[in-house]
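Fold this complex.
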Amino acid sequence: MLDTMTSIIRKAEEENKAFWEIVLEDDMEKKEYSREDSFEKMLTVWQAMENASDSYTGERRSVSGLVGGDGLKMRQYNRRGESMCGGYVSEVIAEALSMAESNACMRRIVAAPTAGSCGVLPAVLLPLWHDGKITQKKVLEALYTASGIGAVIAHKASISGAAGGCQAEVGTAAAMAAGALVQLHGGSPKQIGNAVAMALKNLMGLVCDPVAGLVEVPCVKRNVIGAVNAVSAADMALAGIESRVPVDEVIVAMGDVGRRMPHEFRETALGGLAATPFGQKVKENMQA
Amino acid sequence: MPDIFNILGPIMVGPSSSHTAGAVRIGKMARILLGEPVREAVLLLHGSFAETGRGHGTDRALISGLLGMNPDDLRIPFAFDEAEKAGLQYTFKNVELRNANPNSVVLQLTGETGKKLEMQASSIGGGAIMVNELDGITVEFDGHYNTLVINHLDEFGTIAEVTRLLSNYRVNIAHMKLSRHKKGGEALVVIETDQTVEDRLVEWISQFPGVRRVTYYDKREEERDRA
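Structure:
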C-alpha cells in the first residue's frame, strides 16, 4: 500500500525510480489504463493551469468586490524592478495572487488540492515554465509528485479547511509544491520527503477564517505564503537540511491539530479575521 | 487512497468546489432527470447555500447546471444572461429543511412540455453531490453510475419484471434500493447500472403495469454540452 510518504520513497529507492514514476504507476494500476492515457489527463490539468495564468488580466472582481487586480499590481511592481525578493520569487508571488484571485472571481482554475488553495502549486511552476527553464514533460512529472503527496496527506490527515483549517488546504498545497520543486531541481525522493515535512510544519496551526464565509479574504493572499513557504522548504531540502520530525509523523500531527482546532477556525466564519468588525460588516453587506 | 485527479482537480470555475462546482452538478443532475429543457425553476436554498450562496455564485452555478453546463464552463458567471437567452425563468428562496446537509437545495422544475420534477440534493464536498429526495420520496444516489429511478405502486412482480428486462439486455445492476411510503402504496426503486440503459428500455419500463414514472440519469450526459 502506497499510503505514506515513506512507502513511496522506499519503493522509489528500491526500484531505482523517481518519486513521480511510483505515483504514475499506481494511477495506471488503479485505473487499468496506459501511461499515455494517464499523461493525457495530467496534460489537461496543466493546460488548465497555464490557460488561467495566460488569460489573467486583473480586470475581474469577485461577487463581494473585495478581491481582484492584486495579481496585476504585483506583476507591474515586478516589472518596474522594485521587488525586494526579485527574480523567481517575485514572479511566484504574482502568480499565486493571480491564480487565487481567478478562483475568487469565477474564472476557470484547477483545485490543487482545493479551489481555495489553487494558486500555490501553479505559482511555483509557471515562472520556471515561462522562462523556458523546464520542459512540459518535467512539469507533468512534477504534477505527479505533487498529486501523490496530496493524496497521502488527504488519506492520513485532511485537505479540507472545514475539517482541518487552512493548514490542511494551503499547508497541503505548499507541501505539494515543495515536493514538486525539489524534484524539478534534481533532488532525491528523500529530499522530497524533507521538503514536504518542512513546508507542512511551517504552516501548522494556520486557521481557516474566511470573511463572510467567502473564498476571498484572507484566502487569496494565503496562497502567497503557501507558495513562498514551498520555495524556502524546497531550497532547504536541496541544501541538504533534513526535517528532524519524520515526514509521515508531521502529516499525522497536522491532522491531529486540525481535529482539535476549535470549530470557529474551521471555515465557519465565526472566528479570526471573519469575526473582526470589518469581517462582520462585509457579512452584513452580503446578506443585504 | 484518493484518486490523484481528485487532488489535482476538478478543473472548475471558482470559487468553491462545494458551493460552485457541486452546485453546477446538482443543477445538471436535475436537468437530466427532468429529461427536457427547463422552462421554470423554483430553487429553495438551505443552510450554507442560503447564507453564503450568493457570494460563492451558488445561484449562478445552479442555473448553469439547469442549462446543461458542466462545472468548468466559462459561461457560469454569466448564467443569468444565458437563462434569459434560453427562456428559463427562475426564483430563489431560502428555506430551513429538516435533517439536511448544510449545502442543500430543493429544485422544483417545470420542463418545456410541462413535465415536472422536484429534487432535493446536497453538495457534500470537493464537488461531489448526493440526491436526497425525488418527488418527495427519500433516495440516495450520487451520479457515479447510470441511474434508473422508477416510481411505481408497491405491487407483486414489478421489480422482478424490471430486473429481468435489464438482464435480458445485458445491463448489469451495481446497486439497487427500494423505498416506499407504506405497504401497497407508492414506492420508489433506484437502480444503478454499469451499462447504459437505452432509451427504448426506459420507455418499455415506463409502460409496465403499476409503473407511474421513470426518470433516468445517463452518465454520458455529464460529458455532453461542453462549451
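Residues 146-221 of chain B form a domain with the Alpha-Beta Plaits fold (CATH 3.30.70.260).
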